[in-house]
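Database export, one record per block. Field names are fixed; values are copied verbatim from the stored entry.
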Amino acid sequence: MARNTPSTSVKRAPVAIIVACISVSCAPSQAKHDAHALTEAVIRFRSSPNRDRPRLAHAVIGAKCVGDVCEARDVCAKSIGSTSRGLRLKVEVEQAIARVKKDGGEALQDERAAELRGELMAKLAEAERLLVDGVTTMPACEEKLGALKAKYTF
């Protein structure tokens, strides 16, 4: 049986320190990982064409988080969620108008024309409201992401 001599303990000490460093303080924290992933998801959303944004919104809205990253995610999800819903409504209105144009405008000649115009105008107004909300809440998202970048140094 090997005895634990002072020379054996000294030889094992660097290995123990390295293992502890790797497993605890040197490994990236979950919060840093989540903060970086959230930031990247927001960047992808903002740099993508409008047609792709609703699909990319899920990466922000459903992002994993811990601690202060959850607060940033929630702020960003509000902005991006509004923008995404507004873009979807805008596309629905555009598609309805395209169908009417394809039919030569005949769909707007019947008694349902006023009702259809009213529905489209209401959808368009809601889309505009959501898009404005998305734009006005984005600076708060950017501020939260900036704080995360500074805190976690990435």
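Remark 1: The helical segments are 6-25, 30-47, 53-61, 68-102, 113-152.
Remark 2: Residues 19-27 have pLDDT under 50 and may be disordered.
End of record.
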